[in-house]
Write a structure and sequence with these properties.
Blueprint: H1 15-29, H2 37-50, H3 55-67, H4 74-86, H5 92-98, H6 102-105, H7 108-121, H8 125-133, H9 136-139, H10 145-160, E1 163-165, H11 166-173, H12 177-190, E2 194-197, E3 203-206, H13 227-237
Antiparallel strand pairs: 1-3, 2-3
Helix pairs in contact: 1-2, 2-3, 2-4, 4-5, 4-7, 4-10, 7-8
Length: about 240
């Protein structure tokens, strides 16, 4: 008899991974099957509780709602839209909204979410946070909302500023005082930010260089024609 080989134990999957795989299988077999609607609704709630996200599953559910409008859950749709807002700058919110009937969009909570989306898209962060504060019952049911929007605001600032005034950053991420000091310390340690004393405008935060706030970094790497392409073209032109 040969020696028995040691078999490595199969790692157990986390419950949310099992749910995600099950949903993927359902979508692969028949994404237009109305019988999977309940599973997709449960998966939206799973995304909320586990702070995960699946745009494909959510879009599939919204499409099924179009075929089964009497089964539409306003609560589930609102959670999908909040998760889509949290995915900015990805265009997920618009993709989801396109599948929601106009009569549903006229409900108060959806009108609010559309306004919030507009504020984010146009970089009007002060107005966004003011509106969000009046709509906590809609957005705060989804854990991680505030941090996701702060990350998006920082992304927008990093495209615009080489050095952002402390006051501008504070307004964009809705943090002030000692909380902002702690926030800055974390990003200095982990994100390469540098604090610099300004003149009339107070403290400045030097953001990491990128091809948007430092256009010279673009160089020609993305736009240049590779050398091997040039060597193939030249004989043709000659």
């Amino acid at each position: 008899m040969g020696r028995e080989r040691d078999v490595a134990p199969v790692p157990k999957q986390a419950p949310q991974q099992q749910v995600a795989q099950m949903v993927e299988q359902l979508l692969a077999v028949n994404p237009y099957n109305p019988e999977i609607l309940s599973e997709l609704e449960n998966y939206v709630n799973e995304q909320v509780s586990s702070q995960t996200y699946s745009l494909d599953a959510n879009l599939c559910l919204l499409r099924l709602y179009q075929f089964e409008p009497e089964r539409m859950s306003s609560q589930i749709v609102a959670r999908i839209l909040v998760k889509a807002l949290m995915a900015m700058p990805a265009p997920d919110f618009g993709l989801c909204l396109f599948l929601i009937p106009e009569r549903v969009q006229m409900e108060e909570q959806f009108k609010t979410l559309i306004v919030l989306s507009h504020y984010l898209e146009t970089g009007r962060f002060r107005q966004f946070w003011d509106e969000a504060a009046k709509s906590r019952h809609i957005v705060e049911v989804v854990p991680g909302f505030e941090q996701a929007i702060q990350d998006y605001a920082i992304h927008v600032l990093s495209l615009t500023y080489q050095k952002v005034p402390r006051s501008v950053l504070a307004e964009a991420i809705n943090i002030e005082g000692l909380s902002l000091d702690k926030f800055l310390e974390q990003h200095v340690a982990n994100s390469g930010w540098i604090l610099e004393k300004g003149h009339a405008r107070g403290q400045l935060i030097v953001l990491p260089r990128n091809e948007f706030n430092h256009p010279e970094l673009k160089k020609n790497s993305a736009d240049a024609i590779p050398l091997d392409h040039v060597t193939r073209i030249l004989p043709i032109l000659g």
